[in-house]
Each structure stands twice: as C-alpha cells, then as structure tokens.
Amino acid sequence: MKILYENCVLPLSGARRFAVEDGKFVRPLPPFGRVCDLNGAAVLPAFLDAHSHLLAYAVSLTQADGAACRTAGDYAACAEKFARAHGAGKETLVTIRNADAFPDPAALDRVPRPLHLQARSGHAGMFNGAARALLGLEKAGVLEETDYIAATKKVPMPAEDELFRAFAQAQRDYIAHGFSLAQEGVFPRTMFPVYAALCERDMLRLDVYAYPPPEDFDDAVRAFPPDKKSRLSIGGMKIFLDGSPQQRTAFLREPYRGGGRGVQTMTEAEVSEACAFAAARGAQLLAHCNGDGAAEIFLSALARLPDGARRAVRPVLIHGQIVGDDQLSRAAALGVTLSFFPAHVRHWGDAHLKNLGRERVERISPARTALDRGARVTLHQDTPVCAPDPLEAAACAVLRRTAGGKSFRKEAITVREALTALTGSAAAQYGLRGRGRIAEGGKADFLLLGGDPLALPPERLERVKINAVFLDGRCAFRRTP
Fold it and tell me: What pTM was computed for the model?
C-alpha cells in the first residue's frame, strides 16, 4: 500500500511531503492507499552509526556505573549495591564502567570483592587483588592499552540469557535514538559464537555492520557469508594504530606537554601489509588513529597503494582527534573518510588542555577544515564510550564547548553539515546508495522529530525529541506522551 505523508517539513531537502510503499520511498503521486497528516513534524532520514561497538554497549548494560565514584570505598559501595540488585554472590566479579578517577591501588586491594574498574574511554582500567587472583592476572595498578585489553579478555561474559536481554535493550536504545544501522567497530573471532546465536534466534532488529581484525577477516566471511535475509554484514576490517589522547597514548608527531609522544601500536610495515591485505580482498579498511603520528603512518601506507587498490578499501580514519591541516588535504586527495568523535571536546576537552595546550585543542576533531578541504566527514559516539546519541555528536560538533565551559569554535560546523554527516555522508562511508536520504527508491528509514533542527538555536539541537522511528516503512519506535 502506498502511503502519502504530508503536512511536514524535510529540513535537508526542503520538501513538504513524501510517500512510502513496500518499505521504499516512492514518488508522492496518486493513487494512495492512505494519507497521513504529520501535523507539521520535521522528518529526517534515519541516522547510520559511523562507528561504535554494539555488543560492548549491551555488555555495559550488565555492569555497574561508577561515574560518581572517586575512592576505593566509593567503588566498593557501588559494587555492593549492584550485587544486591542483581543477586550476585560475595565472590562474584563486578565490573564498574565509567571510572573517571582511579583510586589508590593499595586501598582497592583491601576490598574483598573482586572488582574491575574500566575507564570511560575503554583504554584503561584496574583490577583489585581479589580480581587478579580470580582471573590469574599479575600486573597491579592502572593498566593501559594493550596490557588492559589483554586483561579484559579474561573477564567472563554475562550469562547467555542476561546477555541476550541486554542486547535486546541495546538495540532498543539505538533505534530510539534514530539509528537504522549499528556498527561492531571491532569484531574478533571471540564474538562469532554470540552473533551466530543472535542470528539463529532472529534477534537483530536493525542492520549491523561488523569489522573484524585482518587476522580474523577470512574466517568471519566464511562464518557469516552475505545473505539478503540476514541483518549482519561483514563490512570490512579494522586496525588500531594508537591509543587515546586523554590517556596520553594517542601517537603524536609532537610531544605532549610534559613529554612523551604516546603509543604506536603498529609498525609502518604492519600497516602497509594490512592495507594490501584489505585491497586484495576488496574489503573496506577502518583505522583507529587518534593522533597525527598514527594518521601519518596510515595515510603514507594508503599513498603507496595503487589508485584502484586504494579505492577498493574505501578507507576510513576513525576518531582523528589530532590531525594536521596537511594531513586533511592528503586525506581528501586519497579518498579517506574522516569519522570524528566530537564529544571529546565536551567530555575530555579540559583534560586535553592540560595534555596538549590550547592551540592543539582548538583543532580537536577538525571537522570544519576537513570539510573545507573537500574530505568526507562523518560523526560518531564510539558507544559505549558515549551513549548512542547522534544528536549529542551533532551538538558537540556545532557548539564545541568543554564541560568546564570553555569554547573552541575554530572547527565548528553548521547544524546542516552535522546532520548530513550523520545521514548521507554516513551512508556514503558504508557505500550504501539507498540510505541516508529521503529519495525515490531508497530504504524507507526515517524519523519524526519534535522540532526542525535547522530552525532552532544550535543550543537546543540535542534536546530535539525523536518522536517516532520508521524502519523499512514500519514504525519501530514511538515516544510515549
């Protein structure tokens, strides 16, 4: 049945009506089976998640929240409250996410319950003595980057039923925030059995694009071959070249204040090998590069590829917190999509000032210059680092204010540019021509908003309510009054 939606505004196109039939956008020409009056609502194409970790977000919903904790006693009390609410025994390990302040290691070791504290960035954490004994870990204190990631592999996953309930909630959260597509920004073979079970039980409610590391890519393609009936797709592969600036582990060309250039996690030869590996398979390549030192290695490796091979990998530079003007020009010339994480300015901008100084912080997530140089720009939240809220990403890219109230406007973009980064540009990042815009033949994924983002002051952007989400032309979420 063809449905006409009228009395609405489409901010990105200026249209006032559109039509849907059989899950696709069609020309708004009669006859219509039904006419729906939207009472002046603003309508956007659904958002596409340019980078996040869906399963990790689901797991985070099974963990305690330590954002308000500062001392070992705070964390112990948080863990006990969580354990009582979930019926966990005294010897059960409790993971506490969003640990913005790590306590004294000796004091934490005196807590009898096994505790795992995870920094909000996901790049650092602590295990107390009871947890180290339980998991067979040796290193005490704060662990960072590769040491921390290795330790987390020993943390048991939630029980299957609990994990599946959390995954269902995670999908509801993504959809309620307007996403029609979610990303598994890293998809190691340890996640294959979980997704095999999710697919077997037909639990995916939105499209998921997964990016295994190169060493797991071929097995991932064999385990999850292309299937029009499946919502899971192997989108390409992912490599990590450095850490994060808030941990002072992003790899920089010039030192941090106080010294040190961060952590280089791959050699130039390894990055070149990964680029060639992706090109040989015609697979997209995502590269985690927070610092300009890491970006330099990635861009140089891409430049050594033949033009056709580089086009085949459709490269994406993920995060790009500290990227030089010279590198933005090269990225544009090489066809690199720059996917920025603009919420860094809000959540860690004040810390970056201490680590980097004002001149470099002015250019954190340099979306303005990237667009001016002709590069494709997308925005992401790196969920579970931040909530799966694309309108927060847009607001942070437009306003560029720290939690402490400092403003860094040099790299601000417009509301229209931010919304385009979340829709049409995100679809182009994935190579999906029928997504990210409301146009004839496209997939009928769209949002009904409580206000026109282009007609409101930028300060109100992230407070715009998503009143309904339609996927394939069917309502997947509706806000209750």
Answer: 0.95
